[in-house]
Design a protein that fits this description.
Length: 199
């Protein structure tokens, strides 16, 4: 999308602060990831919650989908400079999930463990933001495999790599731990409005 079209988009014209600096709007949802898209047998898939919690727990996909559903409409911003407005995600509120597993007062960070050994982390305050989810639906349909099916994180206040795909574990930490992309040059804070893209 050209800068001219970006400037004429009525959503940006109505609220110019809605689009972070350096970003360009798209109606598409580009597919970006490193490595192959994993495949899952949902009968065997498990989500592990561990670390600073009352007791380690695992959840089946059915148990996860049976949790109370929260819907969030939010904008997403990729470090590669595209943004997509008004995405509707559905899933379990991360704050509710943290309460369910008994996150301890000592927990200060959350690390997402994903397929292929990928990880990323965010502060608890970001993970428990009202718009943050463990999500499985986007715009009325289950996530496609290339977008993180069966489960991805949604951290709307950060660049989109913090909304990790193919989540298999959630670890609650006392101290932060750099993830795959952060160890390879991405800025750990990842604030789109400050253009915190790289170290």
């Amino acid at each position: 999308m050209s800068p001219l079209r970006r400037s004429l988009d009525p959503r940006v014209a109505a609220d110019p602060d809605r689009l972070p600096p350096g970003q360009v709007l798209t109606e598409k949802w580009p597919v970006l990831h490193y490595g192959a898209v994993p495949t899952y047998d949902l009968a065997r898939w498990r989500l592990r919650a561990f670390g600073e919690v009352a007791a380690e727990r695992t959840f089946t996909y059915e148990e996860l989908r049976a949790m109370p559903v929260t819907a969030v409409v939010t904008d997403i911003h990729c470090v590669t400079t595209w943004s997509r407005f008004d995405n509707r995600f559905e899933g379990v509120s991360f704050a509710a999930f943290a309460a369910l597993v008994g996150m301890t007062p000592e927990a200060a960070f959350v690390e997402f463990h994903c397929a292929g050994g990928f990880t990323t982390s965010v502060p608890v305050a970001i993970a428990c933001d009202p718009g943050a989810l463990l999500t499985w639906r986007h715009d009325g349909q289950d996530l496609r495999p290339e977008h993180g099916f069966p489960l991805r994180a949604l951290m709307p206040r950060k660049y989109f790599w913090k909304s990790a795909k193919w989540v298999e574990g959630v670890e609650f930490l006392r101290q932060d731990r750099l993830g795959f992309w952060e160890r390879n040059g991405y800025n750990n804070s990842a604030d789109p409005w400050r253009e915190e893209r790289y170290w």
